[in-house]
Predict the structure.
Amino acid sequence: MTAFQSTPAFSSRRLGRFGVWSDPAFAVGLVVLWVALAFFFNRLPQIDKAVSSLFFAATNCATGDATRICGEFPAAYMNGYKLLRSAFMALPIVAALVVAAILSRDLVAGRRWHHERVRASAVALAALAVGPGLLVNAFLKEYIGRARPQSTSLFGGEQPFVAAAEWSDACQHNCSFVSGEAAAIAWLACLLPLCSRQVRRVLILPMGLIIVTAGMLRVAFGRHFLSDVVLGSLSTLVVFCLLAWACEYLARGSRVLAPR
């Protein structure tokens, strides 16, 4: 059994190696889903408040001020959870190095853009750079301005609560919307087109559990709201689908124009 097969036998002929990931209808559906969820969380901010409050332990304020909320997110100080978070943070880095090594090996072997594994590897790496890198960390987290849960007055901080996908100046840098770690760990799903059908069947459940657990740890630590995690994860998948569709569209066009 090989983890990275070099033939497109498991994919449909129309969609190629990416399968449904390169279907424009699926990509549009994910974009619509992202917008719908952003609107949903924005209009129902009590969901974010309620979920984060499950992990918050209120305490008496040292100043004795009864009008202020004091406390902490205990999970953020538990060594086991901190170690698990570190392991999850390392996974995308290790996976990216493996994919880069596979791509380099294929290029050295003379395989180029028309080889499906080369395209799948290149698009996966591009999705990591564009999704978690540019869209999430360089744009959304820098300009939306949503304060992190632990920094809001709801949970002992000084900043006001801001609903999901709402422009604000409550936070000036490295803000809460959306979760960069959730976006990065969700990128692991973008590696599935590189795997054989058998390996995908084995990986999909543990991969899903890792993505969900890593995201919920960010909520439990008071570093992100639920909406930050959900929309951060989905952002990466949206970027990957759009890149996969563009890649296969260009590949089909170049094959048509190639001299016979």
The first strand starts at residue 57 and ends at 59. Strands lie at 57-59, 70-72. The chain is about 55% helix and 0% strand. The radius of gyration is 21 Å.
